[in-house]
Amino acid sequence: MTESRAHLLSRLADLLGPKGLLTESDAIAPYTRDWRSLFEGPALAVLRPASTEELCAALRHIARHPERIDLVPQGGNTGLCGGATPLPAGRQSAPEMIVSLERMRAVAPVDRTDGTLLAEAGVTLAAAQDAAAAAGMVLPLSIASEGSAQIGGIVATNAGGSKALRYGSARELVAGLEAVLVDGTRLDLLRSLRKDNTGYALRQLLVGSEGTLAFITRARLRLRPALSRREVAFCALPDAAAVIRLFDLFQSRAGDVLEAFEFIAGAAMEVALAHLDGLTFPLAEPADAYVLVELAGQETTLRETMESVLEAALEGDIVTDAVLGDSEARKAALWKLREEQSEAQRLAGASIKHDISVPVPSVPELIDRATAACRALLPGVRVCPFGHVGDGNIHFNLVQPEGMDPAAFLREGEAMTDAIHDVVHALGGSFSAEHGVGQLKTEMMESWRGGAELALMRRIKAAFDPDGRLNPGKVIPLD
Q1: Is pLDDT at 216 greater than 80 in this prediction?
Q2: Between vectors from CA 164 to CA 158 and to CA 167, what angle results, nearest 5°?
Q3: Torsion angles phi and psi, residue 243, rounded to 5
Q4: Which stretch is the leader sequence (predicted)?
Q5: What mean pLDDT do residues 73-85 have?
Q6: Average pLDDT along the chain
Q7: What average pLDDT does range 388-394 have in this prediction?
Q8: Contact call for residues 288 and 361 (beta carbons, < 8 A)
Q9: What Å distances lie between residue 392 and 293, 373, 427, 470, CA to CA?
Q10: How do 45-47 and 21-22 pair as beta strands?
C-alpha cells in the first residue's frame, strides 16, 4: 500500500471510529461478493459511517485525495444483479471502496397525520414495517428479503414485490429523501409536500438509480392505515389466457380491495412440491396454471366478495378449482406456495433467471411464446415462470432438465435468454422489471435503451458524478 493510501485510511479511521472502517481482508471479504456468489471484486476498504455527517466528512476527504478512488454504495447486499458489488479486478479503472450504511438504523416516530415514516438507509424493511405497525399503520411494501434488505437499497433499486399491484413500487411510496453527493455535499429532499411544483423532482431521479447518482441516507416513506381483514384464495386455471381473464374479473368486481394477484406456472408448482418439505398442495388435481389472490380491507363482506368472484370464475370456466384460507395458518400456508418458489428452484438444480415485464394484457402471450421457444431449444427444460401478473412482472425462470449436468445446462442459457428477450422486446416489455440492471445487464442497455434515451442518462449521471467515481460499471455501460 502506498504511503498516500495509508494516510487516507488513517484519516478515515479517525473520522469514522473503530467500527467505521474495515481494512483487514477477512473483515472486508463478506462485502466484496454478492449473496449468490455470482459477482466479486476487490475493495481497498469498507466505510461504515454512523451518520450522514460522518459520510459527508469521509467523502470530502476522499474527493480531495490525489489518487482517484471509486465508491460502491451497499445496502443489505440482497440484490440479484451485482449492483452493490465491486467490479472484478480486471475491470476496475481505479481502486474501489465499499460504502455500507448498515450502521445508520434510526427510525423517527411515525407521523400519523402526515402518514409517513422517516428511516435511515440502514434500517431493514422488516424493522420499518414493525415501526409502522406499532403506530397502527402499514408500510405496504413486501419482498422476500425484507428481513435483511435495507431502506437505502430498496429505494435505490425501486423494489417492487407482491403488493405493488395496489400500492405501487418503492417510487410511489417515497415522500422525501436525503442524499449525499460523491463530493460530500448533502442534498435535502425530505420535504413531504403533497403539492410542490417548483422544478424538477430530483428525488425521483434517485429512486431506482442503483447508487450511480448519490448515496441515499434517509427516506420518508408513505404509510397506509392497517387493514383489519384479508381473504386469500388459491386457484387452479386451465391455461395462461385464463389468468388474465381472472384478473379482469377481480379488477372489475373487487378492484378497490385487490391486494395481490400472483401467478405460478404448473411446472413451477411441480418443482416446489418435489423439492420442499412442508408444502401442502391444497387442490384435488394439478393444473397448468395457478393464481394466489388476496383481498384486504375493513369491510365485513370481504369473504362474500371473494366467494362471489370465484363463483363467477368457476361458472365461466376461468377457474377449475379453488380453495380459501379459512384461518391465519391456512392463509400463510397458501402464501408459502408462492413465496418458496425461488428456494425450490435452487434446490432443483441449476437455474437461469429472468426478471422481465410486459404490458399486462400480453402476459399470456409472453408465457406461451417464451415457453415454446425454450422447450424447442432444449427439450426437457423445466420452464418455471411465476410472478406479479397485476403489474406485468414475471420471473421467467428455467430449471435444468432432470439428470442434466448443471454446467452443460448453463452453457445453453444464452440462447434461451435471447429467445425469451426476443419475445419480451416484441411485446414492448423490459428486460429488468424490479431487480435492476446492476453489472449483470449493463450490456443490454445499448440495444434496449440506446440512442437519445441512454445518451440523456449519461448526461444526468455526469451532472451528479462528473468524474464517474460513483458505482462505475453499473446501469450505465462503461465507455
Answers
A1: yes
A2: 105
A3: -60, -45
A4: none
A5: 95
A6: 96
A7: 93
A8: no
A9: 15, 20, 11, 31
A10: antiparallel
